[in-house]
Write a structure and sequence with these properties.
20% strand, 19 strands, 6-stranded parallel β-sheet, binds S-adenosyl-L-homocysteine, single chain, binds iron/sulfur cluster, 5-stranded mixed beta barrel, 13 helices, binds FE3-S4 cluster
């Protein structure tokens, strides 16, 4: 695979890109006498959502407005996810639909970027089987979006760029947020962990942390533009700063917590092997930091954890949970679990079931193992029957439902500070507490984006409360 030149000056690269954006704006303004519109659709995780905010920022610089309607679009941008086969199938389905649209509107630019586009086998497939895709670019050359659009418009040739680039430019790219009170703040990029089932390290490159100054300045900017919740993002936020920063994640949390204003700090994702006691102490002492930990365990069997290359044992994981509970008695936990990893036996699966009973997660994100070509797990022998995996998956869901049903009534009587997120039904609004509990209370649209104190009064499948 092609690799970018080592030495480069980020400022010069960015100003060159802004030059391309200005030229695109000139071209499209001269050619069309109406505002061109971009349709940007994001698949995958919050990191991708956050990347799309920067891609939208670049689109705006190129003179594009935005539309939610595909048929109105002059530029379609799909920011894709490769984490499971199903995610890739969805993208191919969506790209397939564009064929007819492109026939009707030949000037429409179709762009595919993100984690799928980073993989050579996918780039090849799109090149061959989807001739109407004009531009494809990977995660590490994202900042060159305007250049690609310019070159396509001027030279007409299709563009396929997914080089691995050590010098991804991040700082200084304009941000186009959706203007809500919730803000994403990426603090690091990439992943060094190489869990054996996971494609992310291959499509996102090595870990790289932004400087504390860049993160804190962006947090200030977000707060001054009305953010009430800042979600710190990274594939593994716990390893923030390792190797290239003066601050670790616990210290960074304290710095952001000390910023002025009434706001909340959330973060994801945490890797158990890097989740330190120092971090748990910082969480417990910072009043703006959520009392909720998304700590993906993946599996409860030490044998499988080892095959997954997770680098912790069930016992070490449970010790962390215990410590967190000691420091923060109100804390809630969520997790990711993979069922049906190659070679997982009934015994291994039972270990997962016993672990979830012991931890008592508030909710779980559950997945059936999906073979990702190029990862070590894709080469492991997998003789388990699909039916067995599906059966295990269903019993895991059932068990978790039971746990949630048992847990929720214990929150009745609890006083919580809710950040109101959306309107519910029957005159209710829905908010989230510091402990990540979702509570429905009576209220109006005007409360959306505000903090409201409430007492939890009832559980009927969802939690209800009253304002206090
Ligand atoms: N960096 C994060 C998130 C990675 S992707 C973390 O480490 O937790 C989100 C989740 O997708 C993972 O936690 C894992 O549970 C799931 N996942 C990743 N690769 C998968 C695969 N090949 N098959 C099934 N689930 C997978
Ligand atoms: Fe994937 Fe593991 Fe990295 Fe998470 S920590 S992104 S699961 S390799
Ligand atoms: Fe998917 Fe890439 Fe995120 S593979 S989960 S969009 S890092």
């Amino acid at each position: 695979m092609e690799t970018c030149v080592k030495e480069h000056n980020a400022e010069a690269v960015l100003s060159e890109q802004f030059g391309y954006a200005a030229r695109v704006k000139e071209i499209v303004t001269n050619k069309y006498n109406h505002q061109l519109l971009a349709y940007v659709h994001t698949f995958g995780c919050q990191q991708n959502v956050s990347d799309s905010e920067r891609l939208k920022g670049l689109s705006e610089l190129m003179g594009y407005g935005f539309t939610e309607k595909l048929e109105e679009a002059d530029l379609v941008l799909y920011n894709t996810c490769a984490v499971r086969e199903h995610a890739e199938d969805r993208v191919f389905g969506n790209v397939g639909i564009l064929k007819a649209l492109k026939k009707e509107k030949p000037d429409m630019l179709i762009c595919v970027c993100g984690c799928m586009a980073q993989q050579p086998r996918i780039a090849e497939k799109i090149k061959k089987s989807y001739p109407y895709v004009d531009i494809l670019f990977g995660t590490q050359v994202r900042y060159r979006f305007a250049e690609f659009v310019y070159k396509k418009l001027v030279f007409g040739k299709r563009i396929f760029e997914n080089a691995e680039c050590e010098h991804e430019v991040y700082e200084g790219i304009p941000l186009k947020r959706d203007g809500t009170f919730k803000a994403w703040l990426p603090i690091m990029e990439g992943c060094n962990n190489f869990c054996s089932y996971c494609i992310v390290p291959y499509v996102r490159g090595r870990e790289h942390s932004r400087t504390p100054e860049a993160v804190i300045n962006e947090a200030k900017m977000l707060l001054s533009s009305g953010a009430k919740e800042i979600m710190l993002l990274g594939q593994n936020v716990n390893s923030y700063g390792l190797g290239n920063s003066s601050m670790n994640f616990a210290e960074l949390l304290r710095e952001i917590n000390a910023l002025e204003g009434d706001f909340r700090i959330r973060f994801m994702t945490s890797h158990p092997k890097d989740c330190s006691e120092e971090l748990l102490i910082a969480m417990s002492e910072c009043e703006k930091v959520e009392k909720h930990l998304h700590l993906p365990v993946q599996c409860g069997s030490n044998r499988i954890l080892k095959l997954m290359n997770r680098r912790y044992t069930k016992e070490q994981y449970l010790k962390l949970i215990k410590k967190a509970k000691e420091l923060m008695p109100d804390i809630t936990f969520t997790s990711d679990i993979i069922v049906g990893f190659p070679g997982e036996t009934e015994e291994d699966f039972n270990e997962t079931m016993s672990l979830i009973e012991e931890v008592r997660y508030h909710s779980l994100f559950t997945f059936i193992f999906s073979k990702r070509p190029g990862t070590p797990a894709a080469e492991m022998e997998d003789n388990e029957l699909k039916e067995d995996k599906s059966r295990r998956f269903a019993s895991l869901l059932k068990k978790q439902e039971e746990i949630s049903r048992e847990m929720n009534p214990s929150f009745i009587g609890k006083r919580v500070k809710l950040l109101i997120e959306e309107q519910g039904e029957n005159g209710e609004i829905i908010g989230r507490s510091l402990e990540n509990l979702v509570v429905h209370i009576k209220g109006s649209r005007q409360d959306i984006g505000n903090f409201v104190l409430a007492e939890i009064t009832e559980f009927d499948g969802v939690l209800h409360g009253v304002k206090i």
